[in-house]
Automatic annotation (TrEMBL):
It is found in: Cytoplasm. Tetramer of two alpha and two beta subunits. The lineage of its organism: Archaea, Methanobacteriati, Methanobacteriota, Stenosarchaea group, Halobacteria. InterPro entries: aa-tRNA-synth_II/BPL/LPL, B3/B4_tRNA-bd, DNA-bd_dom_put_sf, Phe-tRNA-ligase_IIc_bsu, Phe-tRNA-synth_IIc_bsu_arc_euk, Phe-tRNA_synthase-like_B3/B4, Phe_tRNA_ligase_beta2_arc, PheRS_beta_core. Mg(2+) binds at residues 339, 345, 348-349. This is Phenylalanine--tRNA ligase beta subunit. Belongs to the phenylalanyl-tRNA synthetase beta subunit family. Type 2 subfamily. Its cofactor is Mg(2+). The gene is pheT. Pfam families: B5, tRNA_synthFbeta. It is an enzyme of class 6 (ligase). Its EC number is 6.1.1.20. Residues 282-361 form the B5 domain. PANTHER family: PHENYLALANINE--TRNA LIGASE BETA SUBUNIT, PHENYLALANYL-TRNA SYNTHETASE BETA CHAIN AND LEUCINE-RICH REPEAT-CONTAINING PROTEIN 47.
Amino acid sequence: MPTVDIDPDELRDLTGKEEKADEELKEDLFGLGLEFEGRTEDGEFELEFAPDRLDRLSVEGVARSLRYQYGDARGVHVPSTNSAEWTIEVDESVPEERPYVTGAVIRDVDLDEDGLDSLIQLQEKLHATMGRKRAKGAIGIHDLTMLKGSPATEGTPTIEYVGLEPDEDTFVPLDSDREMTPADVLEDHPTGETYADLVSEYERYPAIYDDLGLFSFPPVINGRRTEVSTDSRDLFVEMTGTDQWTIDKMLNIVCYALAARGATLEEVRVEYPDHEVVRPDLSTKTKTVAHDRIETILGIDLDPEEVIDLAERSGLEAGKDEDDGNLVYEVTIPPYRVDVLHPLDVIDDLGRAYGFNDLEPKYPDVGTVGGRHERSRLERSVREQLVGLGFEDLLNFHMISEEENYERLDVEPGEDVYGAGEPATIKGPYSEDFTMLRTWVTPSLLMVLERNTHRAYPQDLAEIGFTAEVDESENTGVAERRRVGAVLASHEAGYEDAKARLQALCRKFDVDLETPPTDHPTFISGRTASVVIDGEEVGVIGEVHPKVLVEHDLEVPVAGFEFDLAALR
């Protein structure tokens, strides 16, 4: 899960709760769904948050949520904006791969060291999540006093978003002291090398000019001339991307964070060749939620006034209405909430405001009491046996990226090997790290090993997890399976160790195991076998190939196996 670093003293200052002890703050944050993961070297809270609540990527956003939780703020707040003085003119030469731009002017912001650090973290976290590592949206923040706008009309300074040849012009990028062309930046600048693949195939590169020349090379790097410091009081925020909605929502989150610092927001006019828009777009949206559905989902009886109160304490607003004689609420959603897509998202907010810990458990009003499903009983039994064999039980995310699922294990999608099924991809994922449902468990286990190289060996890990792959023979078009995966990582781990554990597991469930040799790109040739249970090929076992180990920064041998859980029935 994504994490954000928050200074508890700054959080107390922004919420006005100076008397709050650290432990109280942790409890309050947990009530918002923010889990304390530890402290950074600087003593800040490292908080794990739900990746849909991108408005909490900064201390300002977290403080805003806490103020609602404390009852110190209520309802939807939309900051006022001054009329546009600046214009972004979009030239027809802009690369068609990155055609959209948005922006805002920020006046009278107070940026001390903490405020600047928070702004930089917010920028980086938005890049990593909603911006898909800058591929879908990239943020540029500039010191407005260092810009000189070309007067398109009297009193209206203008900057231009254009496309230029790789060697057409020069500027001094951040963290450099020499003039460079965009092509030079991609080859010789550390940041340019990191993000070169985003634009290297373009015929023309995105660029932003003021009257003095080139000052931004999105999505790669800004110019040094407009660098923001603690002395900056007026800012120009520009964002470019492949989707207007995405960059507009990213802009809203940044604007709200800066407004929390006392800044005044000013609109920017964006002139495309065929139309014009004014940004930021701080319009609200509404969702219709039925009263009886709220009560059914939360399992409690609520008066209409209680629902309205809970909505206001969630940073929303609710007005009563009727639909065919049924009580419903028209709920207003603030501009910074990019996660509210369905009435259930609203009900989740109402439940958090009520307090999930205050909900009393009760049996459902049905004639039977539930019990464990046969598959669940099998899963539990296999898990207990794996723990008895010395494995540490894991529960990883079902979602993953194509790179982690295939590329880093040297597997091609659709290849005729175990785990290489066609991916069930996510439409419009929030993060580039979670774009598909994993097709096998082994990639997740190797990711855990990669993140724990600082811990002692041996590390013997196992998971019984959900997997999915495209299968046209299924009614849904997707085959869903539970699979058993295990890895052994130590200086002495080998094929024989993995097979011994697998044999012991199969004996417990009275099934016949065979391991005929096979080839699999993730494992070493000659040290790999198919897992055949009761005559059916259901998995793979072997020693992980050195190139896969290197890819995961692992310096010890790893052996493992994976097979379909259903084979043990």
